[in-house]
């Protein structure tokens, strides 16, 4: 039958399409393995689920499916940035220099970068050469370094390099070469405040003074007294690296003077002076004498002592003694003048006097006594009191205040006041309309120490008028007047009727 073979051909074509190998995947960024050979049997082809992109052919009468978009290629990872060195170290300065080493310090670089900072290398070379050598075998992380074991007198150029994984940074260089020698600080004496003035000590006391100083290198200290070298038997000097100790075991007056301390470094020096004054008790006055005697008084004079104890005399003490008892009594103490008058002596007694000197140490151990005596004579006393002319205090009366005009209301008491003076005490009279009031009980008259008052008790309509106060004594009289107005109460009829009456 000729119609049957046709379907077999179609089925064979479909099988042939199914047996075609799946397309190879796109190559990855890394090299892909070689594709399988074309002559490989269909059995070795990848399974159907390994190639999901392969779709079954559409059935007859169906539209073919849309093709899937191709997959995006993955991007390669960004390579890390290259490692870079840091910027140069900043602010390289010299901190200290001595005769064998140089101490430097600096600040970290402004830019360090992603490679970080491993440490610093310190390099130096002698001035005039370009032979730079590292002085630290291992990197230092500190920003301070001491370059040791150098030769005194060499001049060194110094630089510092920061090191990390990116390499060496530009160097931080000192602008000037450094001379390897001890830095000279000018010598300075720090004299204590108490020694800037005259230092006063009593004879026999111990003196122990510590005077600090500074300077670099160690200053040379020397002492002199009044421009001459010190007597080491009297004064002991012990110097340390920071101060000088001035010591006298037992002071004497001969130790007084101006001591000068000098500290010197190379051509620089500093000086300070110490004025030392050794004092003791003064001697007595050179002489004391009685100058005059009168009444109950004796006048004395004396002269300064020959020995003032190496200081100024601050005063004198004067004592007296009665010849009968011989007991001494102090009459003046801390007296500054060299003459005095002794008073309040007893009539008929004989006195002797002595004077002590005084300075900062105290009173002299001895006193100078007068060679003569002073006797207070017994004499009659005829006292005549002075004659004084008696003062006449008499004067006529006079009013010291005026009496102002007054007004009052009916039924309300009022008072008139004035003041008068006069010697002898004047007689006071009160008058109304030039008529003496006398002992009228309606009026109350008071005169107290020249203050005169007239009280009018509950005045009526007829109590108004001119009132006068008259004062009289043997030398005259005086009068003061005022006008009193008595007002009626308003608003009452009875008052008007009383007025008519």
UniProtKB/TrEMBL annotation:
Record field: compositional bias (Low complexity): 46-65
Annotated keywords: Cell adhesion, Immunoglobulin domain, Muscle protein, Repeat, Thick filament
Domain Fibronectin type-III: 88-183, 284-378
SUPFAM superfamilies: Fibronectin type III (SSF49265), Immunoglobulin (SSF48726)
GO biological process terms held by the UniProt record: cell adhesion
Stored Gene3D superfamilies: Immunoglobulins (2.60.40.10)
GO cellular component, as recorded: myosin filament
Pfam family, one: fn3
Region: Disordered, residue numbers: 1-88
InterPro entries for the chain: FN3_dom, FN3_sf, Ig-like_dom, Ig-like_dom_sf, Ig-like_fold, Ig_I-set, Ig_sub, Ig_sub2
Protein purpose: Binds to myosin; probably involved in interaction with thick myofilaments in the A-band.
Family: Belongs to the immunoglobulin superfamily. MyBP family.
Name of the protein this chain belongs to: Myosin-binding protein H
Protein's organism: Astyanax mexicanus
Lineage: Eukaryota, Metazoa, Chordata, Craniata, Vertebrata
